Amino acid sequence: MERRTFIAGAAAAGAAAVVGGTALGAAAEPNEAASSAGHVRGATAITKVFGDGQKLIAVAVEYDRDIDGSALSTSTFAVTGRTVTKVYANKAAALAERGRDGRFVVVELSPDDDSAALWVTQQGGGGTSTGSPSPSPSSSDSSGSGGAPGAGGPKVGDSTPGGTIVAAKASVIQKDTVRTTHGARYAATGTTVTTSAVVNLVVDDFRQFTFEDPATGQTLRYNLFVPKDYNPRKRYPLVLFMHDASVVNVATEGPLVQGLGAVCWASAEDQAKHESFVLAPEYGSVVIDDDYEPSTLFDATANLVQAVTEQYSIDENRRYTTGQSMGAMMSLGLNVRYPDLFAAAFIVAGQWPAEQVAPLADKMLWIVVSQDDDKAYAGENAITGAIEDAGTQVATAVWDGRSAAAQFAADVRSLKARKAPVNYVSFLTGTTVTSGSGTSAHMGTWHIAYTIPGIRDWIMRQSK
After folding, report:
1. Is the full-model pTM beyond 0.85?
2. Which of 3, 8, 61, 129 has the greatest number of CB atoms lying within 10 Å of its CB?
3. What are the strands, taking DSSP E only, across 327-451?
4. Pairing of strands 192-194, 422-427
5. Coil, helix or strand for 257?
6. Sorting pLDDT into bands at 50, 70 and 90, what band is 439?
7. Is residue 188 over pLDDT 80?
């Protein structure tokens, strides 16, 4: 994986990573307890995206010689403001289940630390919160609880960001002796090394582009994941992910770091099962609000999907759409306006006027919503009711949002066994929100929904 510094857009907050580290010096002789300061080449921050956003989860310290991992422990290093959970040697600035001797010492950190979060969302009261806490539905999201259609929430054209990307950086200190594979001992030092590079797991595998749409005159920034061994003689599926209103006008990479909605499809595990393209536009303004009258970015998105399809070898019968809140509304609306564009859709916490959803009766859908997300839950009940009235089978289930992965896998199997074209899952009231987190049930829905691989497997098996 390419190592590079993650540069946030103009709207992103946080200082850039500070170049740090000490100069490379001569290696100590065996059994010489030399200070490690002259042997450290630098440090790299490692980030990972979770359901509630990107977090800094490790620091890789690079030495001038291979390090003996057998003598390392969680007390060997300290990272300012963070909890060290695991320490091991490695041959690259990368995570590993089991370390191996190499020039890097990887210091893993708890993702539950308050300072771990790199995706920060604005609260309804004007404050900020990192990680799980998210915008109030009435102030930063167009598909939240409460209020009549069009009331509260941001309006079409609003370009005020509801979130911020913080630059990934950390400061690490070697607190105990480190031993090389040749027997040299690098003694503890009080020198602080600040990360000067960043590895963003999965995020770095996307490339950023700009689409100029001649039909609408709109410009769309977007992220695109191309399968690692792309072969133009093969035909690949494509997944379109559309973000919620908190991500508007943040940075091109915003849809990749706000949660798992885009990057989960591009993970090594998912790509091993389903090689696919992943397309994630970054909207500079709100595309649709609760009045259901979208801006021209709506049609520009459909045109972007078609343009990418024509540029690469993409199977038109295996294009899929997914999104959360505003993005879920767009997924529903695009399926209504362009019924032949997608083979299936994964809808997370959104709604659409029930009187307009007749085309959805012919679609393959997996819908997830929280029962205490009043507006989206009522909206999805109305949509699925209309679909059933049209004669299409809808398989419904109520899940506990606090379930472990094994239970979610069993839940998916149970619902799939009913072989319905539309699967409708609602999370029990109170199970998508952690007490004291400040998260709304609305946004808590996608913190969980995109962590369930079985749903993605079902989507990827659908074809027109």
Report:
1. yes
2. 61
3. 344-348, 364-370, 394-399, 422-427
4. unpaired
5. helix
6. confident
7. yes
As beta bridge partners, residue 13 has none
Contact 4, 201 (CB under 8 A): no
| Rounded average pLDDT over 28-32 | 42
Strand duo 119-122 + 163-165: pairing: antiparallel
- The 10s digit of each residue's pLDDT in 72-106 is 999 999 999 999 999 999 999 999 999 999 999 99
Is 33-115+166-200 CATH 2.60.40.2180? Answer: yes
Where are the alpha helices (H) located in 68-135, listed in sequence order? none
Please check whether residue 200 is in contact with residue 6, taking contact to mean a CB–CB distance below 8 angstroms.
Answer: yes
CA proximity to 451, closest of 259, 245, 241? 259
DSSP E strand stretches across 51-159: 53-67, 77-79, 84-90, 102-109, 119-122, 128-130
Locate 16 and state its tokens.
């850039």
> What percent of the chain is helix, strand and coil (3-state, nearest 5)?
25, 30, 45
pLDDT of residue 105: 98
What is the b/e burial string over 323-343, where b = at least 16 CB atoms within 10 angstroms of the residue's CB?
bbbbbbbbbbbbbbebeebbb
